[in-house]
Specification:
Layout: E1 16-18, E2 21-29, E3 47-50, E4 59-63, E5 65-66, E6 72-77, E7 88-95, E8 112-119
Antiparallel strand pairs: 1-2, 2-8, 3-7, 4-8, 5-6, 6-7
């Protein structure tokens, strides 16, 4: 049963209800020109994953992963604290073998990450 929205990158059968939240599994392509995450409150730069891309209105939590070729790992910053849900998260792409953040302007558009996203 589809959730409140439907996005093409969301796997068939998702979002699925879980209590008063939805779980979505989504394939996200990297940006054509990555901007490194800047330390700030909230953080700046990075890659953006939106709730709409996940078939949701708000994001509660994101579980990152490794790119389809094993070269990159991705972590999400919720960009808000205090239990707030957000409409988008900032993604930090790192080189899996070194842990170093991907250099600015790197083209990651050929890479895909599968995320597990909880939200409403």
């Amino acid at each position: 049963m589809p959730g409140p929205l439907r996005a093409t990158a969301v796997l068939d059968g998702y979002p699925q209800g879980w209590g008063d939240r939805y779980i979505s599994v989504v394939d996200h392509k990297g940006p054509a020109s990555y901007t490194q995450i800047g330390i700030a409150t909230p953080p700046t730069g990075g890659d953006v994953l939106t709730a709409a891309e996940c078939g949701l209105k708000f994001i509660s939590a994101v579980n990152g992963g490794i790119s389809d070729d094993g070269q990159f790992s991705v972590e999400a910053s919720m960009t808000a604290g205090g239990g707030a849900e957000v409409a988008q998260v900032r993604l930090l792409w790192s080189v899996a073998t070194t842990g170093a953040q991907v250099a600015g302007a790197t083209n990651l558009s050929a890479r895909t990450i599968r995320f597990w996203v909880m939200g409403r």
